[in-house]
Amino acid sequence: MAERAYWLAWSQAKGLGPVLLKRLCAHFGTLASAWHADGADLLEVEGIGLGLGSSLVQYRQRVAPLDLLAQYEQEHPNFWTPADAEYPALLYEIADPPPILFYRGRLELAGALQLMPSVGVVGTRAPSAYGQRWTRRLAQQLVAHDVIVVSGLAKGVDRYAHQQTLDSQGLTIAVLGTGVDQVYPSINGDLHDRIARHGLLLSEHPNGTPPDRAHFPRRNRIIAGLSRAVVVTEAPARSGALITAQLANDYGRDVFAVPGSLDNLNSYGCLELINQGAQMILNDMTLIVALGQLPQLNPAGRLEREASGDQSGDCSTASPTPPPLSPAMAQVLASITDEPTSLDNLVQAIAQPTGEVLATLVQLELMGLVTQLPGMRYQRC
């Protein structure tokens, strides 16, 4: 209870965002310890300078965390902090986890995240018949294989993902850019109520918070953080779904995209993701097969972080004597070491087009010479 109070108190301090809050907790071990630390010690936390440090010291002098918590719980009874056991451990792994997470619905879904894989399904607000169909097909397969479907309860792809999941008797989590009591857009009123009864609504904003354009890009990080992998089923070149995909990649989660027609502008975002290294959805089972190859969750609900030498996948079957390689393949292989490296770093080091590097990586992977790790990272077998 005390640590919960300090998470709340620190979260209300001006100038202290989610990134700094997590750094503060990591530096002092607990936010209770940080609260009672000397002002000079606060300056040891990266990102806290003299100005912010001084204002935080003054803030602590006029706030009583336990009193603040008691009052806040009366006004907002349904929220978690990272100090609460119900707070999703997978979400806390990201660099900027929300310090306050408001909820409505089936609370057991938060616990289910520690036992079942979860996939974010996102895309355009105006999907074609093709985008609608593949969103539904993928949601059906995810439900059939006991995967939690996470999305943002927007119009379009989000709506079809949530709807199909519920129609298939599956589990779904909606992350909102409003308070969990607010229906937005209005077309999703019935779906909002269904998720409140059979799924889980989450938001970093308290009840009563109306729609705000600035909130929706920020909520995308929560969708990515709650997901083991993210799939974009259809999206134009400029789309919030691409923000979610980029965040997922930054967080070390796998990114998938459904390829579409060059004649459809709503496919350009997905095609660009694939060009940048996202994994292509080739059939209904692509996601399901890939989920079985992702790092497993440990009993605390976090992703297992194995030593790099143990992340070799099927590389134990590789031949000790590499077969003859073309000059292009040899150049790519020479740029990969036993330490994982990202696709972006490889492209920069080799100075070849991304598509050519990816094609070469696929050949090397089939030959058992390299292996792909989550987050589009590669290492030598």
Q: What attributes characterize this protein structure?
A:
Rossmann fold; alpha/beta; single chain; three-stranded antiparallel sheet; 12 strands; 18 helices; DNA polymerase, domain 1; 381 residues; 12% strand; 3 domains; Arc Repressor Mutant, subunit A; globular
What's the main sheet like?
A: 9 strands, mixed
Total helical segments: 18
Order of helices and strands: HHHHHHEHEHEHEHEHEHEHEHEHHEHHEE
- Strand share of the residues? 5-15%
User: Termini distance?
Assistant: 47 Å
Would you write up a description of this structure?
The chain has 381 residues and is an alpha/beta fold. The chain is built from 18 helices and twelve strands. Strands 1-2-6-5-4-3-7-8-9 form a nine-stranded mixed β-sheet, sandwiched between helices. Helix 10 (157-167) links the parallel strand 4 (148-151) and strand 5. Helix 10 crosses helix 11 (189-198) and helix 12 (215-225) crosses helix 13. The chain is globular, with a radius of gyration of 22 Å. The N and C termini lie far apart (47 Å).
